[in-house]
Structure formats: structure tokens, C-alpha cells
Design brief:
Blueprint: E1 8-11, H1 13-23, H2 25-30, E2 34-38, E3 46-49, H3 50-67, E4 77-84, E5 90-95, H4 103-108, H5 124-134, E6 139-143, E7 151-157
Parallel strand pairs: 2-4
Antiparallel strand pairs: 1-3, 4-5, 5-7, 6-7
Length: 163
């Protein structure tokens, strides 16, 4: 794999999210997971590196799919939302109906080499956090605010410049 210089630019977050959902469509179907995007049409652009943000979204959605292995198929749903937060950053949420994360797991979730998966390396979320921090944003987890079942992984990135 060849490394490349990051290239931050104005990006349509809504289109980027749809592209990532499409990349994971077959995997989601295989695991009987419904992915729903409720991104508002007036969401401002983000100022980010496309490949890096795609990598973060791919990792978060794949983790959400895996977290729902024990969830009955009729309840396997991932919802992606976005909004402008109080700091003027664009906030993107990946919300699942999976097994959730206990308090101890919440404390260690982004620690390198920490994993709850039998075949996991424990580097995916640590890499995601460093990517988001490179973009001057934050990445954090919380219980699913919609019903307490599952988890929400949330990240922020700067708004793009209006053209």
C-alpha cells in the first residue's frame, strides 16, 4: 500500500456518506442489516480529506454491523445522521442497535490494542481517532440516545468554506 499526502478540500458529506453506504451494501445485506441515512439536504460541506473520512466511516459502519450479530435480524439497523453542532463543526453519527458498550469499554474504546472482537487487532478505532484529530475534530462513543440499545459513534469535522 502506498502512502499519500492528505488533501483537504470542500466535500459534500451527504454524497460521501452515500458512497460509503453503497460500498458496504452487500455486506449489510449478507448480515441482514438495514442502513438508513437521514442526512439533511442543507448540510454544509466539510473540509476534509476524502479518503481519510471514507476510511473512518467504513470502519465505524463495519464495527456497527459486527456489533449486531446477536441482535435479532428484524432489529438490525444502523442510522447515520449529521448536523452542525454548537461549535460550528459538522457532526456525523453512526448509531447501531447492537450489544452496546459497557462503562469499562467506553473508557478503553480508543486505546490501541484494546478489542472486544476475538479476531480484532484493536487498532481500527485508534486510527480513526487519529484521523479525526488530524482534521481538528473529535471522535467519541455514547450509548444509543434513541433507545439505549446499542451505541452511537460520533465524530466532528470542520465545515467547508462556502463557495
Amino acid at each position: 500500500m502506498r502512502s499519500r499526502e492528505p488533501h483537504r478540500q470542500n466535500l459534500d458529506a451527504r454524497a460521501l456518506i452515500q458512497d460509503v453506504i453503497e460500498l458496504l451494501r452487500l455486506e449489510a445485506e449478507q448480515y441482514q442489516v438495514l442502513i438508513v441515512s437521514t442526512i439533511p439536504p442543507d448540510l454544509p460541506p466539510i473540509f476534509a480529506d476524502r479518503v481519510m473520512i471514507e476510511q473512518v466511516l467504513l470502519n465505524l459502519i463495519k464495527n456497527a454491523i459486527e456489533a449486531m450479530r446477536e441482535t435479532p435480524p428484524a432489529h438490525r439497523r444502523i442510522r447515520l445522521t449529521a448536523r452542525v453542532d454548537y461549535d460550528g463543526m459538522v457532526e456525523i453519527r453512526v448509531i447501531d442497535q447492537g450489544c452496546g458498550i459497557d462503562e469499562s469499554g467506553m473508557q478503553q474504546l480508543f486505546t490501541p490494542m484494546y478489542t472486544t472482537k476475538p479476531d480484532g487487532l484493536g487498532i481500527g478505532l485508534a486510527i480513526c481517532r487519529s484521523i479525526i484529530e488530524y482534521h481538528e475534530g473529535r471522535l467519541f462513543a455514547e450509548p444509543n440516545p434513541e433507545n439505549g440499545q446499542g451505541a452511537a459513534l460520533v465524530f466532528t469535522v470542520p465545515r467547508g468554506l462556502m463557495q
